Amino acid sequence: MIHYSSYSYFNICIYIYNPLCYIIKNISKTIGIVVYILKQAANTGVIAIKISTKGRYGLEAVLYLAIQTPAGSESLKNIAQARDISENYLEQIFIKLKKKGIVESIRGAQGGYKLAREPKDITVGEVIRPLEGSLAPVACVKAGKDKKSCKRYEFCATRVLWNKLADELEYVADTVTIGDLAAMHAGRAALTALNAQAALTARNAGAPPIKQTDYMI
Amino acid sequence: MKLSTKGRYGLRAMLDLAVNSDAEHVSLFSIAKRQEISGKYLEQVFSALRNANLVKSVKGAQGGYVLANDPSSIKIGTILRVLEGNIDIVDMDPGFVSLAEDDISYCIRVGVWEKMNERINKLFDSTSLEDLVREHKKMNGSQESMYYI
């Protein structure tokens, strides 16, 4: 998990870190080279921007709760079944989300999970970040103390681009809420119902069956 | 778009080429040295870039590469798509989308991932290699030959 430290901490790190680094670098140069080579070998694809299944399933589960159970709670088993996710995997996800106050658990026979806040008060980012670790595309992005994550940090122009990329991702993640997605879902469900009704009416009236794609957006 | 080393290193190499482009051509060896990237790896990367007409090769003992176009007309998006394929924040196989997608998956895909992809592509297609060169010069001073990107 990448922590965004404050500006003053970053300053302190420069003044202590750089001289220290120079000394250590000279002593352990050989070791450093070997480690660097190994790291490069291991680094292929490690820093990825792809959202994993953890983030995706987490979003699905939270959206599911927002739609199914405005008031009550839903058991882990039911949610897992409804979204075709393994119960174990889902449990790991919910433990993390519970820690962040996104969901809360209800004990007892009729227990399970429910949203801890209103859907409109939960952003997509608040769900994804605890599950993905961070939205940073590469380790050096928005780094304070993680400056050491890359020795090219000082001179690296592409870092500027990655920072902008992170800004774009964060913009979407921090402005879209579960409430927005739930509203979208309600609209979509209504459309599905309309389609079904239209198909039924047409069939009763003897018309040829309407293609599903005709009414769908 | 998995930001693997191919995309990141390829981009750095292209930037290196752009910055050092007052020379007639730039050898892969020199790029590899400055960027601390394996020469063999760079060969693969540049083979793809050449096939996509982003760079031109100059043959011979003193050979190397040049940009095929002005850096201001080479967009980052173009480079990354050549090296990484389609830019997509989730690993969604198109087949999977149409078969297993219900209303909840649909809303998340359209409401979140597609929004992100749109912005990512917009950023990458509105940033040119020239923009990065300018950024580099700001960080490194324009006289110095570029050792770090």
> How does the overall form of chain A come out from the CA principal axes?
elongated
What's the rounded overall pLDDT mean of chain A?
Answer: 78
Specify the biggest β-sheet of chain A.
2 strands, antiparallel
Strand neighbour order, sheet with most strands of chain B: 1-2
Task: Assess the beta-strand content of chain A as a share of residues.
Answer: under 5%
Ends apart, CA distance between termini of chain B? 21 Å
Biggest sheet statistics of chain B: 2 strands, antiparallel
Annotation field: number of helices of chain A: 8
Residue stretches of chain B low in confidence (pLDDT < 50, at least 5 long) are none
Poorly predicted runs of chain A: 39-48
| Total beta-strand segments of chain A | 2
The fold-level CATH name of the domain at 5-87 and 128-140 in chain B is: Arc Repressor Mutant, subunit A
Oligomer: heterodimer
Helix proportion range of chain A: 55-70%
What can you see in these coordinates?
The complex is a heterodimer of chains A (217) and B (149). By secondary structure, chain A is mainly alpha-helical. Among the domains of chain A are: 7-46 and 134-175, no CATH class; 181-214. Chain A contains 8 helices and 2 strands, in the order H-H-H-H-H-E-E-H-H-H. In chain A, strands 1-2 form a two-stranded antiparallel sheet. In chain A, strand 1 and strand 2 form a beta hairpin. In chain A, helix 3 packs across helix 5, helix 3 runs antiparallel to helix 6 (124-132) and helix 6 (124-132) crosses helix 7 (158-175). In chain B, helix 1 (5-19) packs across helix 3 (39-51), helix 1 (5-19) packs across helix 4 (76-84) and helix 1 (5-19) packs across helix 7 (129-140). Chain B is elongated. Chain B has 7 helices and 2 strands; from the N terminus they run H-H-H-E-E-H-H-H-H. With 149 residues, chain B is mainly α. Helix content of chain B is 59%, strand content 5%. Chain B starts with a helix and ends in a 9-residue tail after the last helix. Chain A binds chain B through residues 40, 43-45, 47-51, 56, 59-60, 63-64, 67, 83-84, 124, 137-138, 152, 154-158, 160-162, 164-165, 168-169, 171-173, 176, 180-181, 184-185, 188-189, 192, and chain B through 1-5, 8, 11-12, 15, 38, 76, 89-91, 100, 103-108, 110-113, 115-116, 119-120, 122-123, 127, 132-133, 135-136, 139-140, 147-149.
